[in-house]
Amino acid sequence: MLNYVPVPMTRVQLGRVLPVDIWTPDGRLLLRRGQALQSEAQREMLATHQACMTETDSQAWHKSLERSMRAMRQAGVDMSEIARAPMPTEILDTDYLEGRDVDGGWLDLQDILRSLLYQGARAATPLPRLEGIEQKALALLRHDPDECLFVLFQALPDLNLGYCATHALLSGVVSTLTADKLELAHADQTLLLRSALVMNIGMARPQDGLSRQHKPPDPAQRQIIAVHPPTSADILRGFGISNDELLNIVQWHHTPDAANLPAEHLTSLRLLSLSDGLIAKMAPRISRPAMTPLGAAKSLVLESTPSTAVLRPAMAAVLGFYPPGTYVQLSNGETAVVVKRGARATTPHVASIMNDAGMALSKYVYRDSSEAAHTIVKPLVSGVNIHISLDKVRRLRQQHGL
């Protein structure tokens, strides 16, 4: 779960923009960054809803406050006035943690990556930050790939979290796991993850806006989509990245067959292109429903080409037909969430979260979908409107040795 910290409402001034998103403790967005607190009544409303911010934003905001207070001390401002200093309206890029500093999990890392992607070409010290995110992601992935998939697939429908960062992490994880299954070199796996993290840095904010848009992209937005791969590559060159393979993967990830690249570069490029398209299909939009994981997996195999004939089945096998974090209906009528991949693509380990009458279960019940009484009838992409506890899932997996 993403960690939330209370907002110091008494230190927020009316009429001054907020540099952070404001949430409820259970993750509902109350106010977007860039908006201002307009009245005391609005302050009271936010206080009533226990206004929070992400831990990442909290640490960065307080770091910017410390910098402001330090400047006031150096200017000789009275200490009593410094103690009453309001929260600043600006957070610098350098106020944010690097990935290696994160004590939390995937959603904390997602929050840090979103900040870097939003800053784009203006990001300060981007390479150490990117390296930190990459190292933390690899460590979390190696520790528990099923939990990784669970958390990120749970996050994928939550557009308030910032689709661009969730998409980047999930595309990177899927392509990296597939590269491992294909026994590609460790260096190739690392390169794939880094490429995925930044492939859409040229359109991060528009990507998030498009995910919440009620209508299809207009011509100007289509142009942004069309040019974002080379734009992203140019931003990375501006960061000082000179790795030709990474730059080529980013620049051609939408058109791998048009890339005139060395053969050793093409496998990584095609893997990232496949995972990018796959996650996009499974991601919901306001303007269209998501494709089921089963449908996405079938499309992987059915749309095979000679250049991807080996890659597609490997990626489908890595995810299975029902990836961790997605929902299924069982033959006994229960609704379940997938908690771990199984021995076969069609038989994952699941936890029942709703009974056959559609009532939420206070205690999750383990089901082995390879058993006849608990076979999967169909995947679900809607109709499950209950909060899933990662702690409960962890305990269930531990109890059953998963």
Number of helices: 15
Mean pLDDT across all amino acids: 89
Report how far apart the termini are. 20 Å
Order of helices and strands: EEEHEHHHHHHHHHHHHHEEEEEH
Q: What is the C-level CATH assignment of the largest domain?
A: Mainly Alpha
CATH superfamily of the largest domain: Hypothetical protein af1432
Count of individual domains? 3
Could you describe the largest sheet, including whether it forms a barrel?
5 strands, antiparallel
Structural class per helix/strand content? Answer: alpha+beta
- Please mark out the parts with pLDDT under 50 across 5 or more consecutive residues, or reply none: none
CATH architecture term of the largest domain = Orthogonal Bundle
Strand percent estimate: 5-15%
Radius of gyration: 22 Å
Q: What overall form do the CA principal axes indicate?
A: globular
Notes on the protein architecture:
With 402 residues, the chain is an alpha+beta fold. The protein folds into three domains: 80 residues, no CATH class; 224 residues, Hypothetical protein af1432, CATH 1.10.3210; 73 residues, no CATH class. Helices cover 49% and strands 10% of the residues. The chain contains 15 helices and nine strands. The strands form three sheets. A five-stranded antiparallel beta sheet has the order 8-7-6-5-9, with helices on one face. A hairpin with an 8-residue loop joins strand 6 and strand 7. The longest helix has 21 residues. It is globular.
Helix-strand blueprint:
Layout: E1 4-6, E2 22-23, E3 29-31, H1 40-48, E4 52-54, H2 55-74, H3 79-83, H4 106-119, H5 126-143, H6 145-155, H7 163-181, H8 186-198, H9 204-211, H10 219-239, H11 244-251, H12 263-282, H13 293-302, H14 311-319, E5 327-330, E6 335-340, E7 349-354, E8 360-368, E9 376-380, H15 390-399
Antiparallel strand pairs: 1-4, 2-3, 5-6, 5-9, 6-7, 7-8
Helix pairs in contact: 4-5, 4-7, 5-6, 5-8, 6-7, 7-8, 7-12, 7-14, 8-11, 8-12, 10-11, 11-12, 12-13, 13-14
